[in-house]
Amino acid sequence: MPRFAVNHYICPAGYSVEAFLTAARAVGAGAVGLTVRAVDEVGVPDLKTMLAEAGLTVSSLNSAGYFTATDPEERAAQDRRNRALVQAAAALDAGVLCVITGGKAQGEGSLDAARARIAEQLAALAALARREGVRLGLEPIHPAEMLHKGCINTIGDALRLVEGLDGVDLIVDLYHSWWDPDLKALLAREMSHVALIQICNVRARAAGLPLERDTLGSGEIDVGALVRLAAAQGYSGWYEFELFAHHLKGRRVEDVLGDAAATFGTF
């Protein structure tokens, strides 16, 4: 049976990690995606205890990377954060450490130069992660966020980037990759390269506005069909439901998680 997990990004400010773990367990999730905020708020030792008490594992830790900065102080600070996240992922036995590359606008030079920095620094992070026994998951980012979040955008580009890097695979976030012509081929034929599938639906709130994340039941994506396709090809990893707090639109965390779990159960 497909395995359901939920991501901590859904929690607004003031919503405690303990409350999130309780809500995750209440809707039948078997794992949680944790964030830098959760690690900073609670600390790794207490997180391990809380997870054990809740009977939950860690589907992902989010997010390392952000390789494109060229300012030396900013680069050094991110390198320290990346090393700390690798250590946290190892201590928490996280299924995968998410890697977001960083956008072109965060550094100087051309898009090609930014991608060259990403390739070099991803290889260095992969070497560190291997020594700690941590699997990395590179996440392709929707092209609309190329400047400020990630400039590795297609599944094909991501696969080429991780080729030859032991312990580095892909995180497929449906919000970012639902449109990609290679998505179904990846799920049908190359599941060994998929470390995690993050699920949501996407919809436009009004004509002319960009699509945004929403719950699973309806939208532009047939989420159930993609889940069934991956499962039929032997994918046994987590399907991690990911919304951000601003997508709640006044709804309770518990209600949105419950709705997602119920819909996932129909897949």
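[next item in queue]
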Amino acid sequence: MEIDAYPARYWHFADDGRIQCDLCPRDCKLHDGQRGACFVRMRESDSMILTTYGRSSGFCIDPIEKKPLNHFYPGSSVFSFGTAGCNLACKFCQNWDISKSKDMDSLMDQASPDAIANAAAESGCKSVAFTYNDPVIFAEYAMDVADACHARSIQTVAVTAGYMHDQARRDFYAKMDAANVDLKAFTDDFYFKLTGSHLQPVLDTLVYLKHETRVWFEITTLLIPGKNDSDEEIVAMSQWIRRELGADVPLHFSAFHPDYKMPDIPATPPSTLIRARKLAMKQGLQHVYTGNVRYQEGDTTLCPHCQATLIERDWYQIVRYRLTPQGHCPDCGHVLAGRFDKQAGRFGRQRIPIFLSAS
């Protein structure tokens, strides 16, 4: 079997003879030769295939804080890769050249799950991240890579919009150790008009992660001027997170820059991120961070009990790490939520492209 014609899971025959994809709430129904909205799941005769299995848009070693994950082995390196396509249609996509790509020939790097896991191990990476585009749409490939990683004691990270059906969600997160979930806004109007999707399935994913898994997860919201950055929406979202997920779930506010189909919207000013952070913390969230701007206070992890500085960062660099080997605050003994080693990693801010031979 060719590596780019891999049998996909999560589909059934609809009453009208088409194949319906059961991976995400788009529920695409396909005739022979048709592709889903994600472009990478295709009907071939009487089955569905994943056209990007074993094919990547590139490999890179990043700091884990870039995903962003601030409470998952801080300072460690993560082996990152993605494929092409996406099951959302975000008009503001910041990685549109990858996620919106329909040119399979652009996926020049090929690698089996074992090759990726081996490369991550040889590079000294603590984890492998499925990122750049949403791993939901290449779930079979991501899950196989995760199995290969776990066989080598390497952790796995999903960077995702969280838009999945329940059975696929359960299978997928059974293979993940951590996730960063994009909560793109807190209104269904925003989701429908600007992403072509809906809010509730994303909230369902977050609740599932919190209450039915041991996956460590953090949340990112890209604040877009005039679209999802009002005080009212930020307060409502923060209150929901605290009520449904808990005060200790980290929330990252990141800055939009004009791109893709929204080139006329101005970039998010740092003041908006700082305001959002203060509002979220006022609602009781303990760990709120700012991204895509240099604001050291918004990068720093504080003890939620005594407010002592526990992890001080400068961009993606750990400049001070005061957790005890057990993950406690050294001043008051509070246990910090997250996954931590005895010492912080020292990978720093660097980004290292990696090239793999097909295998």
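[queue empty]
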